[in-house]
Structures are given as C-alpha cells and as structure tokens.
Specification:
- The chain is of the alpha+beta class and about 400 residues long.
- Among the domains are: about 100 residues, Helix Hairpins; about 170 residues, Sandwich (Immunoglobulin-like).
- The chain is built from eleven helices and 15 strands.
- Helix 5 crosses helix 8, helix 6 crosses helix 7 and helix 7 crosses helix 8.
- The two termini are about 55 Å apart.
- Belongs to the inward rectifier-type potassium channel (TC 1.A.2.1) family.
C-alpha cells in the first residue's frame, strides 16, 4: 500500500476519534506518487459505469426517462411538432415513408372511385373509358404514385371522360404540398436543434480534480473545443446534484444547484473551468472524507454555436464523487512550436494529472486556519522589523 494511502487511512481514523489537526497534507514520495498517479488515471470499465446511477453519461446522453404517463399517446399527438423533432431519425424516416404510402393508397382509391362513378365497370359498348390502360388494382396504385410525385403519366393515365378527375388532382396537390412542407420543416428544425453530446469523447477530461488555486480549494474541469463547435456565444455551466435535507426535515433527492465558475476566456485551446469553493459554494463544508462517502454528481454543460456552420451545439458530461480526484492538478498541455510559429496541444497531456499537496479538510476549515495564521505572521513580521531597527 502506498504512503499516501496509509496517511489517508490514519487521517480518517483520527477524525473519527476527534484527534486530527487540520490542515492535513499528504506527503508523497516519488515512487508512491507514480503508482498512485497510474492507479487514479486508469479509466473505469464500461460495466462499472452502467452500475452507477447518474444523470448524464460520459457520452453526453441524458439518462432521464418518463414512465406511467397518463394518456401518453394522446399527449404526443397533441404536441405533434415536438414529437417529430425529438423522434429518432430511423422512426422519423419510417413515419415519412408510412405517410407517403398512405397518400398513394388514398389517391389510388379516389381514382378507383372516379372510375366506378364514371361507369368504367358497366361494360357498355361504345362508351369512352375514364381510365386508359387500367386492368387491375396495381395500375390504380401506380397511377396514385405518379399523381402524388408528379413524375408524369405513362400508358396508364386518366382521360377527359372522368367525372371527378379535377377533385382527385386537387386532393393530390394539397396532399403533396402538406407532406413536403411539413417534413422538410421538421428535418430542417431537427438538423438545427442543439446537439446534446460529448464530441467524440474529447470535449472534457474523464475526471475532475480538487486542487489549490491562490490559496483556495477549487473544483476544476478541463474543456477542449478543437473543432470550434462552441466558438460563438460560448457558455459554460456547472451544476451540483445532491440529496439535500431542508430545515423543515424534508429530504429532497437529487437537488440541483448551479455552481459559480470563474471567467475562462475563449476556447481557442484547452481551458480550465474553475469553481472556487468559497462561503457561497455548496461544497464549502465537504472535506476529502465526505467527498469519498457522499453521493453527488457534478454536471458540466458547454453550449454555443459552430464557427463554421453557425449551428447551435451543446455538450455535457457528469462526474460522480469517485471520479473527482482530491489533491491533483492538470498537466500543461499547450506549448509553442518556435520553428512553425504555432501553438501545439498534446492530446496525451490533456487528460494527464499530477499530484499536488492539498489539505484534506473542507474549505471552511481551511479558511479559518488561514485567518488564524495570518495575524500570527503579521505580528512575527513586526517583531522582526523592530529587532532590526
């Protein structure tokens, strides 16, 4: 077992007996740091992800579904526009094909009725036929397809002797306009709606970290937008999902609260999205031990428009408590290539983390200790000045 593991176990045992003094800092040796680094940076198995209860999976898909909805089919039919837009592509294409087949059959039945109404089935000698080249029902169906798609008639065609020919043509024209206009609008809206995905798994780091920045505990996630999908009006949000006990004793499961993040600039290269664990942060009282034992989930959402097409895009990912590494920092992954006069981004270093000496106490305890130490340092500096004078 590595040195930092022993220190962590001693810290947890001492805290249970109220004998721990904060802040506690892990002292890492070179070999122990390397072994722990390799262990913590090993990706989790897919089967392990499946067993975890989470809101957003690593691919960016939202794992929230509704069940036992009263009159579910009727509600989908009332909001047909959103139903078609949110439908998967295979079901949308199947719906388009089914609607067109129904339109072909309806037009074929109207031609059949027109032929019957015009007396083609009376077998009277010398009477001009309404439909030319019709011998079976398949010809009526082919006539309906030719009329709806306006590809032109062949040897099977209606003649001027049909009584209801203009009614059938009016119906087919209105049906064609409705089908083409409706489904073209649905496809266009579906193509332009924001994409909810993690771009090929390279948008976010696989794990989040808790490290020190300017003396403050910070929750950090690294974000990369190499394809410029979020280059316009970029917006990054971070949310905490955790059970919360209200003052009245009510337990609210999966309570969601937004975490404030620092300005990060533009996504020209990988940037660190930083949430400072301050007095207003929901993580203010969470220590390393509580992070290991508390069920929580951090959701990061990046939205914006593509710099190439202007299409709205949204990527999202979540981190469970066991995917948050306490006491680590991200390795620099950006370097300048002087011969080519350009910046290079290392894909390998994008996910890499290195250990950092970070107190295991909560942000509140760390702030109290810093406030206690600061007056002592000031008085020490004054005494040194008086002694020198």
């Amino acid at each position: 077992m590595s040195t930092e593991h022993n220190d962590l176990l001693k810290f947890l045992d001492a805290e249970q007996n109220d004998q721990v003094n904060f802040p506690v800092i892990l002292k890492r040796s070179t070999s122990a740091s390397r072994n722990d680094f390799l262990r913590r940076n090993t990706p989790l198995n897919r089967s392990q992800y499946k067993r975890d209860a989470r809101v957003v999976c690593k691919s960016g898909r939202l794992l929230v579904y509704f069940k036992k909805i009263p009159q579910k089919s009727a509600q989908y039919a009332k909001d047909l526009w959103n139903t078609l837009i949110n439908m998967q592509w295979r079901w949308l294409l199947l719906t388009v094909a089914a609607v067109n087949v129904v339109a072909y059959i309806s037009c074929a039945l109207l031609f059949y009725f027109d032929s019957w109404f015009s007396g083609d089935f009376d077998n009277e000698e010398g009477k001009l036929s309404c439909m030319v080249g019709i011998s079976n029902m398949r010809h009526f169906f082919m006539l309906g397809i030719e009329t709806i798609t306006t590809i032109g008639y062949g040897y099977v065609r209606p003649s001027e002797n049909c009584e209801l020919y203009f009614v059938v043509l009016a119906f087919s024209t209105i049906t064609t306009i409705f089908i083409d206009g409706a489904f073209i609008s649905v496809v266009y809206a579906k193509l332009n709606k924001p994409k909810e995905r993690n771009v090929h798994g390279h948008m976010f780091t696989k794990k989040a970290i808790v490290s020190l920045r300017d003396g403050h505990l910070c929750l950090i996630v690294r974000v990369n937008d190499k394809e410029g999908r979020h280059g316009i009006n970029t917006n990054v949000c971070m949310y905490l999902i955790k059970d919360r006990m209200m003052l009245e004793g009510e337990l609210i499961p999966n309570y969601m609260v937004e975490l404030a993040i620092k300005p990060f600039g533009m996504l020209f290269w990988p940037v660190d999205v930083i949430h400072e664990i301050g007095p207003e942060s929901p993580l203010w009282d969470i220590s390393a031990k509580e992070l290991m034992t508390t069920r929580l989930e951090i959701v990061v959402v990046v939205s914006g428009s593509s710099m190439k097409t202007g299409q709205s895009t949204r990527s999202q990912i979540s981190y469970l408590n066991k995917e948050i590494m306490w006491g680590y920092q991200f390795s620099p992954c950006l370097e300048f290539n002087a011969p080519k006069r350009e910046y290079l981004i290392s894909k390998k270093l994008f996910q890499q983390t290195v250990p950092q000496e970070v107190p295991l106490c909560s942000g509140r305890v760390l702030r109290e200790l810093q406030q206690q130490i600061k007056p002592d340092r000031q008085s020490l500096n004054l005494n040194q000045l008086h002694s020198k004078s």
